[in-house]
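quick one before i forget lol
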Amino acid sequence: MGLSVKWAACNEGASATWETGDYYGWGETEAKEKYDWYIYKWGTNESSITKYCTLEANGTIDDIVRLKGCDVAARMRMGGAWRMPPKAEMRELLSGCYWQWTTDYDGHGTAGFIVYKAKDNADKGKIKYPTGHFLDKDVTLAASYSLDDTHLFLPAAGRKDAQTTRNVNRDLINWTSSLSENDNQYSVALYFASSDLNMLGWSRAYGSSVRAVLQE
């Protein structure tokens, strides 16, 4: 991809790039049937967080702002040096590639973003949104792209809260290893739903996707 790290070919828990994979609470290393604050590993509500906390309003302060290796789903499930990307590496993926939405990746019926290695610097950071999305507009590219070109696919796997999987093929939410600075009940995730594709704080207790990276 021409970036500082190698990105895994598929989501954690998936065996193919078009599969949505498993869902994980932030800082949890096992997929669960149910996701909410009452059974979250690092706190039973937003003001009782026991690890990864910098604000007194959210619980016990330890000033740890990035996941430790033992709490990284990618490392515990894949082994070796695989890990979850911090927000800087997710930002690099967002700004250093060309993103194109598809409703049917390679004929497998899965919606999400195809993330192409940019062939020209002018294409880096450009995003082609779904047809009808309020940000959908013509995107002028310096090069042409197809699935024969170097790319990743990030499926719109939605999320899991309580025992319900929501908004598959519509929403994309991928964890980073970074804690939200302003409110520690949230951690930073790559997010696309009704708003622009960007990074924002997302509830740590929700089950969301994990895509691993490897330092080459």
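fyi The chain has a mean pLDDT of 93.
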